[in-house]
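Quick start: what a row looks like.
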Amino acid sequence: MANAPLHQKYNELIASCRELTPMRTAVVHPCDEVSLRSAIDAARADLIEPVLVGPSGRIHALASAIGIDLSPYRIVDTVHSHASAASAVGLVGLGQVDALMKGSLHTDELLEQVISKPTGIRTERRLSHVFIMDVPTYHKALFITDAAVNIFPTLEQKVDILLNAISLAHSLGVEMPKVAVLSAVETVTSKIPSTLDAAALCKMVDRGQITGAVVDGPLAFDNAISKSAAAIKHLRSAVAGNADILMMPDLEAGNMLAKELAFLAGADAAGIVLGARVPIILTSRADNERTRMASCAVAVRYAHYARLPSIGTTAKREIPGA
């Protein structure tokens, strides 16, 4: 299959949100130019309806310095980044916003408030991060999980990570995503624990514990994305060479793969965190404008999908907090 034109996948994703209502989004501590401008750009593109949560004086001074008019937007005044995270999570609890967007604070500071037992917005599902990558040399969007939240996940945690990714793929129109559970080899061996986890996840699919996707593993990276590599190794698999989701063995592997694709293959890497009551948009200072817009678009699609009662029961059941 021929490679898609450069950035076509993200352009189509953003365009698919044009008929959807902008998502009420708490932008948490937008106190640097990148985070504030990103929120306002997404608002102007009718992707989000931002609520700016942070020190009002700092936000107004920054906006004035970079030429942004804040008069159309609500600002929730806080004293520091920790209070910004707590206030933003509180807005979710009050039903006033449908998503969170990270500003100029550390990811851990935001997620600490999200998972706080007394006031947080966690669900029974574990939090996990998914990159939705537009790789110029691959024929469709490529989901990579988890590359930002869970460092060395257990088998039980990998179940949640996988279910989160499957639900996200459903929300983006992939009805039966193909999941490659990655390791270094294609054979199951006790010498490489990730192959045992892969085998267990596949058996859980066989037993109906995980639904909504075609899952195979262990698979090495080349077999997951290259049909010729899979054919050379005589792999008979509905996933090999055509994966939608790459389930990583740990955060180190996922983070390195995502950055290698970004810096060596020219890929863009939109990303969100799932498993809370609302999607959480995580952006990096290194992200370009298209990637930031795509991250917002992914969250918009997911949030709207989670609210629709007409969606199939299996997919609906897999969305935390829906």
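That is the whole record. The longest strand covers residues 48-54. The longest helix spans residues 289-307.
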